[in-house]
Amino acid sequence: MPYEQLGITTPHPVLSWANHPLGSDETKMAKNVASLPFVFKHVALMPDVHLGKGALVGSVIATKDAIIPAAVGVDLGCFVGETLIPLVDGKFYQIRELADKNAEFIVYACTPTGKIVAAKANAKLTRKNAYLVKVILDNDEEIICTPDHQFMLRDGNYQEAQLLEAGTSLMPFYSQIDKDGYTLISQPYSGRWQKAHWMIARSGLLGKIPKFEGQTTIIHHRNFHESDNLVFPEYTYNHKIVDVIPLNYTENVYCLTVPEHHNFALKAGVFVHNCGMSAIKTQFTGEQLEGKLKKIRLDIEAAIPTGFNENKDVEKAVTNWQRWRDFSNLHRGVQDLEGKAMKQLGSLGSGNHFIELCLDTENQVWLMLHSGSRNIGNKLAQCHINTAKELAKMANNKLPDPDLAHFVVGTPEFKAYWEDLQWAQNYALFNRDVMMSRFKKIVEKHLNGGKVTKPLLEVNCHHNYAEKEVHFGEDVYVTRKGAVRAQTEDYGIIPGSMGAKSFIVKGKGNAHSFFSCSHGAGRLMSRSKAKNVYTLDDLIEQTQGVECRKDTGVLDEIPGAYKPIEQVMANQSDLVEIVATLKQVLCVKG
To answer: What pTM was estimated for this model as a whole?
Structure first.
């Protein structure tokens, strides 16, 4: 559905994909935001739009030289600009230069079976002034990246850079030029050399390789032979970690989006995950779940704290998270919360946060979860919101809503807020990673005897966050309050309510939405109203066929309190395409 421009008089237009009239309070909130002088172009409202704090949930706000803490909330890993990426044209390119070109290109990716293929990708600046580590490999290569960036292990699983240990084997990438000038790639699953143009042809990407000028020509890797049939011994094509060293400086960092395979090769000779709610498509089928759903739910609830609860014991992966070293730099108002934040890392929270098992239309099992930055993120946001309000009051700044108090670029308050926001967003991402790891182990215990499996597809997306991006040719700060980024080929997750459908989507890159889409169905009624309107019998009926809590404690999350997800999806057909349709069979809520 194309957007409609709301018939309200504001300095900046409001474009809506909701396909229904806004309520009076919603209209007022939209007008308040669109009246701010630093809003860029227009305000975009997603199909799930509803009342929020300061700004509507489901709104996308691009701003120039200012940011509104209350409109962000809190809910990304990446490489320094000089990192070299091998493309299938036989050359190396700096990742920063690929991002500057703002064009699609073809990289090498690796499938879960260890087969190297050609895949479409694009690059972007992902963070400014990010903390870094140096990963040293046994081939003398060094990779400088953020501590949370995931490296592909030799068995096809992933591990964050900061958690890599000396001797860990990584999925290798080796290439060379033969005597006829052809690029040869060593296939990890077989150890045999394959001509790159064959894998490009098989991928259907011939004729789609962009020609970039002035880049570094590919160089020969050492210790390679000319034969394209040679099988190398295991030790010669099994890159290992020598050391991971924290660095004492920060830099802007970049990453690739590889929609189909979610990983790409580095010139250093290894594969890494791309950036990317969280969802995994597994190798399991619905038949394997029969008679096991309740046991799985009880194990999840025992392993992952929900609501206001926290972990009794803190696991090594959590204590080793390198962003703890930055805690003392956060707002002074949260300095007594480090212990609580550490115990809550790997916990779900409450409200609309969930852990779900789903089945797609082909009866394949998916793992999905939605969570954020827990109590520490909320407290950080509130501290900065209060600071913004105090500044507005001191400046006698007449705002239509106190929650639209903002920070101006170049001020100490803006700098402090932006740094704390990045920390909280990293906390939220790592929180989901820890929970997904536990969730996956539980499912593997019940369906595969505890043996580790490789995901068929992984999707990660963020909402309630802000990033610096380029739109309509200008640098702006984009706040997605209850919205998901949907650039061309971006994978995303749009969940329905418990008991309804959910969707895995790909973005269409709609400029008018600032490359965004909805993050869910959106509420039809408030939590208090839902508890007054519906009964426990209604909840039991509306969640029939779903293994979940069926008590008054989750009555505010009843499906009837949310918009019909099918209509929400129809309203954003110009923003995303549906990749997979999922139906929940198990749901855990706080």
So the answer is: 0.69
